[in-house]
């Protein structure tokens, strides 16, 4: 069984209380999957997103690798910084992840975030881009391309601010598993996150 697993994560300042736990979990998942070879051969990738005001730091992408050590070193470089208003460049992050070098037949994307994309359809909070993504991305175009590429989407929920986003996403691509990371304390987050990633891969392999 050959798997591509991509973590897409909000890396703005609001994630400061969660990002170390999430990073540790991502590294633990990579180690656990590496130990499952040769039954499962896995390549792991990462796409961190912030917001449009962060310019060159808006996206932080580490393409797929089958080296656990390389992946852990890459993820160690990620920090929670930047972000302006409450919404973030969620669609930009997902779009960038869709265009990474997916290769294996089983493709799993685990998205972790605490805020929705830009646009009135997602939130009533202060939004520098109330009309939606300034680059013209829509959830419909990004998620349909994701589905066409055979990428299975899963979400790790940290706050209730993403409830409307989840509902809209499900209306586009149908049901997907949402893992509740909201109530996890930092010490518990690693375990919950690891369980989420493993459950996502299991769910896809059963479907396949």
UniProtKB/TrEMBL annotation:
The keyword NAD does not apply. CDD domains: vWFA (cd00198). InterPro entries: HMCN1-like_VWA (IPR056861), Thr-specific_kinase-like (IPR052969), vWFA_dom_sf (IPR036465). It comes from the Eukaryota. Keywords: Secreted, Signal. Residues 5-105 form the Hemicentin-1-like von Willebrand factor A domain. It is found in: Secreted. The keyword Secreted applies. This is Hemicentin-1-like von Willebrand factor A domain-containing protein.
């Amino acid at each position: 069984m050959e798997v591509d697993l991509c973590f897409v994560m909000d890396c703005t300042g609001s994630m400061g209380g969660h990002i170390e736990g999430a990073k540790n979990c991502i590294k633990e998942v990579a180690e656990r999957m590496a130990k499952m070879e040769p039954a499962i051969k896995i390549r792991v990738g990462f796409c961190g997103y912030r917001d449009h005001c962060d310019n060159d730091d808006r996206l932080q992408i580490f393409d797929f690798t089958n080296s656990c050590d390389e992946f852990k070193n890459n993820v160690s470089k990620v920090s929670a910084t930047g972000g302006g208003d409450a919404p973030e460049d969620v669609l930009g992050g997902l779009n960038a992840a869709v265009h990474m070098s997916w290769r294996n037949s089983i493709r799993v994307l685990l998205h972790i975030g605490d805020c929705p994309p830009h646009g009135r359809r997602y939130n009533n909070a202060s939004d520098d881009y109330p009309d939606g993504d300034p680059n013209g991305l829509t959830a419909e175009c990004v998620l349909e391309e994701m589905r066409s590429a055979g990428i299975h989407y899963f979400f790790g929920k940290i706050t209730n601010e993403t409830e409307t986003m989840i509902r809209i996403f499900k209306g586009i691509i149908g049901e997907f598993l949402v893992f509740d990371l909201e109530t996890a304390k930092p010490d518990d987050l690693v375990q919950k996150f690891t369980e989420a990633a493993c459950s996502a891969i299991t769910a896809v392999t059963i479907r396949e």
